[in-house]
Amino acid sequence: MTDECCSPMSSRSSTLIGFTAILMWSLLAVLTVATGKIPAFQLAAMTFAIGALVGSLTWIGRSEAPRALRQRPLAWIVGVGGLFGYHALYFLALRFAPPAEAGLLNYLWPLLIVLFSSLLPGERLAPHHVIGALLGLAGTVLLFAGGRMSGFAPGQLPGLFAAFVAAFVWATYSVMSRKLKSVPTDAVAGFCLATALLAALVHILIEDTVWPETAGQWLAITALGVGPVGAAFYTWDVGMKRGDIRVLGAASYATPLLSTAFLILAGFARPSANIFVAAVLIAGGGLIAARDMFLQRPRPYPPGKG
Length: 306
Fold this sequence. Notes:
By secondary structure, the protein is mostly helical. 69% of the residues lie in helices and 0% in strands. The radius of gyration is 19 Å and the shape is globular.
């Protein structure tokens, strides 16, 4: 997980590394649901602790790696705020809303990354960005309308709102990572550990502890911590800081489709016309907004930076 400037990595290689995070995140929803009735913050504490361990294991044989934790307050605010804020909202969404609808609503974040990245220096908001955003919004509205027609209980609406806010939190964290590209990826282990401690504190204050009841639930928790709530953060950090952020944003639109497919295959969701059309609108809107990405060749990452 090193970001040593003396070992330059091309933009193409970094982008490919970032792609692996997208693949791991497509399993996030199905694994979270498979953990059973574990309270949201308890689940966050357990999985982020595993994720921190995954990162710290890469420090073995690299005595300089722990120094990555010495970062200015802004880096910690962005890192911990993004990880803790997003996942607390996401886990809550999956507890209080139907997983497929919550997952698709949450997966507005790829579209938001494209829009937010256009505000970075040297970028601009073009008409196709606006068109893509409107299509994504149409998909979101369809999810709400479809939910009412299928009989959403009032208690599910907070979960849908949490999923919506989570999308903004993650998009902001991702784009800010680009601005903080001098922060080495090794620091993400510290962000994960801090997030685990915060989640454990909130759990103690507001939740009752519920331990997994089956080996399958323990396996799902471990898989979450190693993959979607572990290694994925490190590979995503590399992609955001060294890769093509807009290409990664575009590729992320495959995630809601894969995620929903896994939920349906696992029996946690049923296929429906609403889910299908909403998925097409959100993914299609993102691809249109990210049109420029497919017309540009990845540039080598300059040695000696970030």
